[in-house]
Design a protein that fits this description.
Helix content is 29%, strand content 19%. With 550 residues, it is α/β, with parallel strands linked by helices. The strands form six sheets. The protein has an eight-stranded parallel β-sheet. Strands 16-17-18-23-20 form a five-stranded antiparallel β-sheet. The relative contact order is 0.10. The site of 1-deoxynojirimycin has 9 residues, from loops.
Length: 550
């Protein structure tokens, strides 16, 4: 079985990583130029988001051809070179499989539109009239999840953008087509796969209105999803490769099943519950401070639940859909470095496989755009209109976007203090963040105290210490909303990790025998332990992370 506990994955959003040919758009050659940088971090796997032929309405998550590379990103030769370059460095390349939907530009959908029944059965079409939408389900990007095609007298389902039509997984031919895609990339030397929103692939037999919500309860972790994943894995020979499923609104029970090795479905799951603790009443497009108690409870439930049932978690704060964590749960103004390091340690030292999203390792921040013309993301642009239509002023809508937009994580990677942050010679497709002269790779690589150096240390420790890669986890300070603390154990080894989630000082009284521990890692110089009047006291500075080893 593949050992995953000591592995670290780095995620690249190619469009914003490095532009090699001066067109303002990141590309595969750009990634190749930076492979030594990634090797320097000592990551094991590299996940790149989709680079297939696509109209790019959703930046590649709208695939029009799974077998060809989008010329904006390069050629198949570039891709082969990237795979070879990764293999030479002992980095496994993971590709992103978008199998819930295709672009409406895909040949299958075009044939469906041209009236070919065989291909209509590749998608989810329903007969009807323009005034009778099949169900009231909502698209995740806003508006109805159905689109009417007058020429056919039919509606088709799109859980995402109107240009992303949902595939019909009930059709065995569709499943065969998708397996072919996996085999093709596997034969090319790809070492793993990330499956986009894979827990929504299995739709219910009967489509009905959702009187309680937006429809997700009918198709989330749907009726045949486990069966389909088992089939996909078995028939493509990927059971021993690293596979991660992106799970939308999933449950712990289902994630146990997806990731327990005995089930032979996936190696691990991304779930997003811990990234919704700043959604007011579950609404992403609202402003709210993170609820620390809710965050802690979610980590406890998921870490312990997965541990008890032999499931496996992907550990992460950031990706191309999430605002930057230091701006979100940290304090980028007063405690930028401290909070970025604390947030890093808090997830990297848990049980699971950590993922680092490009720029996270240098503490990149939110974009702080102030004008709608600066945004590019389809979801953000849709929601801007929705917020205005709900009566919000432009200023209010822009304030919400500035906190919540996916573009916050899609700004160009900040390589240096040079023009366009060293990302491109040309004007980038999306604006560089103004702080790039202070926050960039070149600067941080030279500084042993930088966020970059801290991430490097975390990766090193995971490889060195079985207690991190294989240990059990137990949470401490459960009733204290301000501190995320846990203990890891493996044979004789023990680690205790304290994370101050706040910008205030915190004093804890602990029952630990301090003399038996030493400080393994932290983001403050001085020691925080004190023995006073026979009591053991621990003082945590703002956003302090303190890792003690027995
Ligand atoms: C999840 C991806 O991460 C996101 O970027 C995309 O828009 C949706 N899936 C739809 O494919």
């Amino acid at each position: 079985m593949l050992e995953l506990g000591n592995k670290v994955v780095y995620q690249i959003y190619p469009k914003s990583f490095k532009d090699s040919n001066g067109d303002g758009h990141g590309d595969i050659r750009g990634i190749i130029q930076k492979l030594d940088y990634l090797k320097g971090l000592d990551i094991d796997y590299l996940w790149i988001t989709p680079v297939f032929v696509s109209p790019m309405n959703d930046n590649g998550y709208d695939v029009a051809d799974y077998y060809r590379i989008n010329p904006r990103f390069g050629t198949m030769k570039d891709m082969d070179d990237l795979i070879a370059g990764c293999n030479e460095r002992n980095i496994g390349l993971m590709m992103d499989m978008v199998f819930n939907h295709t672009s409406t530009d895909h040949e299958w959908f075009r044939k469906a539109l041209a009236g070919e029944k065989e291909y209509q059965d590749y998608y989810i079409f329903r007969d009807g009239t323009p005034d009778q939408v099949p169900t009231n389900w909502q698209s995740k990007f806003g508006g109805s999840a159905w689109e009417y095609v007058p020429e056919l007298g039919k509606w088709y389902l799109h859980l995402y953008d109107v240009s992303q039509a949902d595939l019909n997984w009930e059709n065995p031919k569709v499943r065969e087509e998708l397996k072919k895609v996996i085999r093709f990339w596997k034969d090319k030397g790809v070492k793993g796969f990330r499956f986009d929103v894979v827990n929504v692939i299995s739709k219910p037999e009967v489509f009905e209105d959702d009187l309680e919500g937006d429809g997700r309860r009918f198709y989330t972790d749907g009726p045949h999803v486990h069966e389909y994943l088992k089939e996909l894995t078995a028939n493509t020979g990927i059971a021993d490769m690293i596979t991660v499923g992106e799970m939308s609104s999933t449950s712990l029970d289902n994630c146990v099943r997806y990731s327990n090795p005995e089930e032979k479905e996936l190696s691990m799951c991304f779930n997003f519950h811990h990234l919704k603790v700043d959604y007011k009443n579950g609404d992403k497009w609202s402003l709210m401070e993170p609820d620390h108690m809710a965050l802690k409870k979610l980590f406890e439930d998921w870490q312990e639940g997965m541990q008890e049932n032999n499931g496996w978690n992907a550990l992460f704060w950031c990706n191309h859909d999430q605002p930057r964590i230091v701006s979100r749960f940290g304090d980028e103004k007063r405690y930028w470095k401290e909070s970025a390091k604390m947030l890093a340690a808090s997830v990297h030292l848990m049980r699971g496989t950590p993922y680092i999203y490009q720029g996270e390792e240098i503490g990149m921040t939110n974009a702080h755009y102030t004008d709608i013309s600066q945004y590019r993301d389809v979801e953000s642009l849709n929601y801007y209109e929705i917020l205005l239509s709900e009566g919000k002023s432009k200023e209010e809508a822009l304030e919400i976007l500035a906190a919540k937009s996916r573009d916050n994580s899609r700004t160009p990677m900040q390589w240096s203090a040079e023009k366009n942050a060293g990302f491109s010679e040309a004007e980038p497709w999306i604006s560089v963040i103004e702080n790039y002269k202070d926050i960039n790779v070149e600067k941080e690589m030279q500084d042993p105290d930088s966020i970059y150096s801290f991430y490097k240390k975390l990766i090193e420790l995971r490889k060195e210490k079985a207690v991190i890669s294989q240990g059990t986890i137990e949470f401490l300070e459960r009733d204290n909303a301000d501190v995320l603390a846990y203990k890891r154990n493996y044979k004789e080894e023990e680690l205790v990790v304290f994370n101050n989630l706040t910008g205030g000082k915190i004093v804890l009284q602990m029952n630990l025998e301090w003399k038996t521990y030493h400080k393994l890692l932290g983001n403050y110089e001085s020691s925080s332990r004190d023995e006073k009047d026979g009591r053991n006291e621990i003082v945590l500075q703002p956003y302090e992370t303190l890792v003690l080893e027995k």
